[in-house]
Amino acid sequence: MPERPDRRPTHAKRAGRLRPSGPSPTPPPAPAAAVPPDHHSVIDSAVYREGRRVASPTTLAETFRRLREQPDGMAWIGLHRPTESELHSLAAEFNLHPLSIEDALEAHQRPKLERYGDTLFVVLRAARYLDALEEVDFGELHVFVGPDFLITVRHGAAPDLSAVRRRMEESPDLLSLGPEAALYAILDAVVDGYAPVVAGVQNDMDEIETEVFRGDPEVSRRIYELSREMVEFQRATRPLVGMLHALMAGFAKYGTDEELQRYLRDVADHVTHTSERVDGFRQALTEILTVNATLVSQQQNAEMRALAEAGFEQNEEIKKISSWAAILFAPTLVGTIYGMNFETMPELHWAAGYPFAILLMAVVCTSLYVIFKKRDWL
Question: CB 58: neighbour CB atoms within 10 A?
Fold first, then answer.
């Protein structure tokens, strides 16, 4: 079968499925073809016809050639962190918009759905729960969907698109519906990947609640870290709701297959449920943080009150010790003075000197005792 000299005009054969409603901008001229890139970032590339794999090229150039040989074929190209030359080669072959290529190169994009002519550009944020670290790991996926091609550009470990491809190849009737069916499978995989994350976060929430009421001093840090992850999770799930509603709004206009419509509505239900769960998690974490702050404040107040009571008791003991020390010091002072051996002291030869000294000691001690007793020092 002769090769088509130019593939781009053939894109109209399946144009229109799963397109968001609204006017479409005219795409600018395609960039010049780049030098054929290496294939290190090509994870898997295949050409399908009627839902079955007919070729497994190992390079982009070979994929382009084999797709031209299949008048009703579809190319599914999976890339992981591709180079700039690879993306420019794809842009030249499939007439991809320069803005979408720029987004795919830079990554760190918010989830979104854009239409450039007859090509859809979808950005998704996949997530997975790391049990060992008790953390949520986020990956980024860019998907180009055209009339006869689907290109995935993955930044990160999630999601596992090889499993998605195997699932679709085991269902040739579904895959024969075109690139839109593959897009559904990817959306479904990303949304299904949120379920283990939700379960892991729920388990973390239960543990945090236990730690809060147990008075664990490290729980505040854990609450803060999980709150940040929930913010990221919200940014990944909330835009998906609007994206899927945009796809569903174009069902009638673009003649989307009824089977795909059912599948996409199911995905929309799942992502709405997940988004609501994530919103609930974030609100619950805010409330837990408030409760933890209250409990910490109460604990600090109790500790300060205990310290104050201990200090008061210590002061009372010091008062008693000081009072008895003063009482005992008075007779010691008198006895010390009378014990000095000076011949000129008149009291030494006074007959009443001894009784007077004893009486003086008793009077001073009694007076001090009465004074301290009245002041509740004893």
Answer: 11
